[in-house]
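Forgive a beginner's question, but would it be possible to get any protein sequence you like and the tokens describing how it folds?
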Amino acid sequence: MTDRLSEVLGNQILRNTSVEELRSTGAGWRVYAQGQSWDFDYVISTVPSFVLSRMLHDSSLPLKEALERVKYAPLAIV
């Protein structure tokens, strides 16, 4: 899926990039990574909710609060 998105969107998509922070701009999102920042209309994340909540700059965001309430079931790999 990410390969196809890259084909269609070209340089409008960042892959294999360690995001340090996300900030809501009102019109979209500012993504901070590797000493740079980019503005996007949308962000798709595949990290667990607790990791994503730590990336969000504004702690008053309802999204951050919702992400912090997500409960994960215990898991054991045998």
User: Anything to note?
Assistant: Strands lie at 19-24, 29-33, 36-40.
